[in-house]
Design a protein that fits this description.
single chain; mainly alpha; 3 domains; 17 helices; about 65% helix; about 0% strand; Zinc finger protein; RNaseH-like_sf
């Protein structure tokens, strides 16, 4: 990220930390927001390890920028106020809020239980292509892909320095994505077979699975199942009938492609292990917490003896 964008991001974090540093500051800011009929009455903290937090923080600061300006004036915090009122600050804030919003949207697409390396690669490749499109638009002076920045630039010119900073940042962002997410070749015949076996040409896949593959694609029941099941559910269900083909497919889609399940387990453990808990062993509770199977309460109650009155 260019130094100017980094500097302004650091200023936003300092402002948020100052406003939320004490009860009196938080109360005063809430009163200012209520007096100015703001939609929200508080800013949001961010953490380096929490998903989506920085983007949400930037969006909230941009939304409440007038209230923040009023607060800094009332507190006579001139060092932060001077930085906050610089001409380029709001433009940088708008761009940062927009680009982090796009990153958050991508992040949400990469989360969830039923995900795999193919869908993740598709989402990441789409984002890389969009970043290249954004760069070409910015080069031509078109900011329509960044709605907050477009609103800000309605009242001021699109400076050459800001244009240069955004282009540099998008270039860096694209390189980092390619570096950290090399991905897979989605045009590979085996990947194409996993994604949709009923549109795959048999000659393109390995010879040792071709005959069983033909049995699969001519199975009308399998075609119906493919329409209603996810990839992992479909190939898992086909394993008994077509083990050779399914084994090849499961090698691609079974490996974890994100840390979502692990993070979900830690979040559940954090909710379970409270100070009021009087039991050290959490395995049973954790298993129930992260399980996707819903208990049949009616059946469980029916299996228990009802306490009768005497």
């Amino acid at each position: 990220m260019p130094s100017s964008l980094c500097a302004n991001l650091a200023i936003v974090i300092r402002i948020v930390n100052y406003i939320k540093s004490g009860v009196s500051n938080t109360r005063l800011f809430r009163q200012i927001c209520e007096g100015m009929d703001a939609t929200h009455q508080s800013l949001l903290f961010h953490t380096q390890v929490r998903w989506l937090s920085k983007g949400n923080m930037l969006a909230r600061v941009f939304e409440l920028k007038e209230e923040v300006d009023t607060f800094l004036k009332m507190k006579c915090k001139m060092d932060l106020l001077t930085e906050f009122n610089k001409p380029e600050f709001v433009s940088h804030l708008a761009y940062l809020a927009d680009i982090f919003e796009a990153l958050n949207e991508l992040n949400r697409k990469l989360q969830g239980r039923d995900t795999n390396i193919i869908s993740h690669t598709d989402n990441i490749n789409a984002f890389i292509s969009k970043s290249k499109l954004w760069r070409r638009k910015i080069m031509g002076g078109n900011t329509c892909s960044f709605h907050r920045l477009t609103d800000v630039l309605c009242n001021e010119p699109f400076s050459a320095q800001l244009q240069k900073d955004i282009m540099k940042h998008l270039d860096c962002l694209g390189r980092e994505f390619i570096k950290y997410f090399p991905g897979i070749n989605t045009e590979d015949p085996l990947i194409a077979m996993v994604r949709n076996p009923f549109k795959c040409v048999v000659e393109t896949i390995p010879e040792d699975i071709q005959e069983e593959f033909l049995e699969l694609v001519h199975d009308s029941f399998s075609k119906d199942e493919f329409q209603i099941l996810s990839l992992s559910e479909f190939w898992g269900k086909m394993y008994l009938a077509y083990p050779i083909v399914s084994k090849q497919a499961l090698k691609t889609i079974v490996p974890f492609s994100s840390t979502y399940l692990c993070e979900s387990g830690f979040s559940s453990l954090l909710a379970i292990k409270t100070k009021a808990r009087n039991k050290l062993e959490v395995e049973d509770d954790r298993r129930c917490s992260i399980s996707s199977t819903e208990p049949d309460i009616t059946d469980l109650v029916r299996s228990k003896q009802i306490l009768k009155s005497h």
